[in-house]
Amino acid sequence: MLVRRLLAVMAVAVVASAMAAPPGHGATHRHRPVIFVHGFSGSGGQFETQARRLTGNGYRADLIEAHEYDSLFEVNTPEQVYAGLDRRIDRLLKKSGADKVDLLAHSLGTALMQAYLRSSPERAAKVAHYVNLDGATSPDQPGGVPTLAVWGEGSPERRIGGAKNVYFPDQAHTEVVTSAKTFAAFFEFFTGRAPRTTAIVPEAVVRLSGRTVLFPSNVGADGARMEIFEVDPRTGARKTRRPLAAYRIGPDGRWGPFLGRGGAHYEFAVIWDEGTVHHTYFQPFRRSDALVRVLTSRPGEGVSGRVETGDRHVSLVINRQREWWGDQGAGGDALWINGRQVLNAANAPRTKRVIGIFAYDAGRDGVTDLSAPIPSFFEQPFLTGVDVFIPASAAGRPIPVVSRPRGGSGALDVLVVPALPSSKHRFTVQFDDYVG
């Protein structure tokens, strides 16, 4: 038994060593570094599926980054965003030995990046290709940089002059960022050839790292502690009393790397104090990921501060980087919380572009009312709120959250959380944005 354990540890160590020091580290690489810039209320998490697809097609994970900022511009100015991007590009060029970087931006980020590329010839000269994802139009290619513009549902008149313009009218605003079709388009634009695959190529051992940040400012959750546990997918219960890893979160929010199993379910617990814990559950990480984003807020602050809490009910946030459509019938999405289907035309119409759902007992009356969304959340871009009474229990009985994504031939995605009271516990479940 001891020999088997030693062999297992050695095998993991060999894989970890290979992942920590990728071939050609610090030398010229055949692929340029890739930088993603998000839009309003976004983060690097919107690009993590595409990053996994890139590494599955030969890109180095350490040369794929997201440039994050506060899209309300209360923490930073656009000029500070640009200066930070200058430093990021110079660092990646030095690290990779590449001549230029490839740059993608989404929504609000496209307006920022178009201005950035036009701001100086020196900046534009460091970018080989620019991808404009469902954002600002332009009469010409920004800064003269070769441009691919990808457009989702909406007016087919939108375009960038001189660019390659691609239209996916069946895709929503955030879905344009994360879809396999978009990946195939920008991969060929970057490399001159089609990708080997658009699937997420699984790995037995996954290397995870990322940031724990305040939503939506993307400021690090400074002062919090984050612990990672493997959980039983049937109950959401932790398999061990002690965490597999623990990190003190600093001003930049960074943590990792953490070595895990590709098919395992993990809980990321952000502990603000001994009485307030924010639990986040992801679907299994089937491939290494350096863009994991754990979104949180300080207790009682931010958007989460609007949630009514109590000892009798559970509070949930349900995220997916692909819009939830509650008004499209068989062509839309379904979402069950504790056996109740909660999406409808009132709280998740296609036009609302919902990617985040706050679910709790509004009014703390023990009654579920899905006839209208919770206004304080529905009025926010990309968010909605649903009044669902989810009873809490001292034993933390299992609460299944089940998604049937559109386009998935009826396949179900399931995440289970324990029914702990919202007075001390917050829960986020993060569903994959791809099917399969």
Automatic annotation (TrEMBL):
A single GO molecular function term of this UniProt record: catalytic activity
Residue ranges of every copy of the AFL C-terminal domain listed in the record: 206-299
InterPro entries: AB_hydrolase_1, AB_hydrolase_fold, AF_1763-like_C, AFL_C
Annotated AB hydrolase-1 domain residues: 33-129
UniProt domain AF-1763-like C-terminal: residue ranges: 319-433
Segment forming the signal sequence: 1-20
A Pfam family the protein falls into: Abhydrolase_1
Keywords: Signal
Name used for this protein in its record: Uncharacterized protein
